Amino acid sequence: MARRFDPWLLAGYAGIACFGVLEATLRPKEAPGRRGTVEDDGTNRALGRAYAVAAAATPPLARLPVRPLPSAARASGLGLEAAGLGLRTWSMRTLDASYTRTLRVANAQVVIEGGPYRHIRHPGYLGSLLIWVGFALSSGSLAAVAVVGALLVPTYRRRMASEEALLAAALVGYEAYAARTKRLVPGLW
After folding, report:
1. Distances in Å between the alpha carbon of 140 and those of 36, 84, 100?
2. pLDDT, mean of residues 175-186
3. Exposure of 142 in the CB half-sphere (CA atoms within 13 A)
């Protein structure tokens, strides 16, 4: 008799739920919500759509009749989710009142170079990518990992480009900071 639910994938969904709770609780009250700004180039909505498709497509992809990933990949996925949640939390707390889901710059905003931002320019996005790739791995499906990556990586690339253009134009010292740091992967890119 087949199981009605997959405990690994259920744990992966719990990690995604934690991501949602994190976003809802650590965002400053005065910060804009989900609506995009002109500067975000549609990336706010694109990320929301990518998240929804990734969450909905993963179970059917996991049921495809292809060789599953080793069970260690599923456990590693949950570990990646936890690491991503930790990095995302650290990033949001470091940004404090400057953190928003939309792209904007406040009047008194300065370049943040502490915490994880001393190593890379977009640690929060790296945390989000780890969460979602970890979620896909928890399904045990290479197809799910490929689809989730194909949905989120290009969307986050576009998001980073839009954000960097805004910050370079609005924040004194951002270009020098960008020249000293990598975008997403310390020492590489």
Report:
1. 34, 18, 33
2. 93
3. 6
Q: Which residues pair with 120 in a beta bridge?
A: 182
> What's the sign of the alpha-carbon dihedral 36, 37, 38, 43?
negative
d(CA 76, CA 127): 15
CB atoms within 10 A of CB 166: 19
Backbone angles phi, psi at 182, to 5 degrees: -90, 160
CA distance 116 to 90: 7
Specify the CATH class of 10-180 in words.
Answer: mainly alpha
Q: Which of 172, 157, 159, 177 is nearest to 40 (CA)?
A: 159
Distance CA 150, CA 32 (A): 28
- The mean of the pLDDT values for the chain is 89
Question: Residues with Cβ < 8 Å from 55, sequence gap 6 or more?
Answer: 13, 16, 135
Rounded Cα gap, residues 142 and 131, in angstroms: 16
- Please say whether the beta carbons of 23 and 101 come within 8 A: yes
- Sequence spans of domains, the chain: 10-180
Please report which confidence band the pLDDT of residue 29 belongs to, taking 50, 70 and 90 as the band edges.
Answer: low
**Cβ-contact 77, 134 below 8 angstroms:** yes
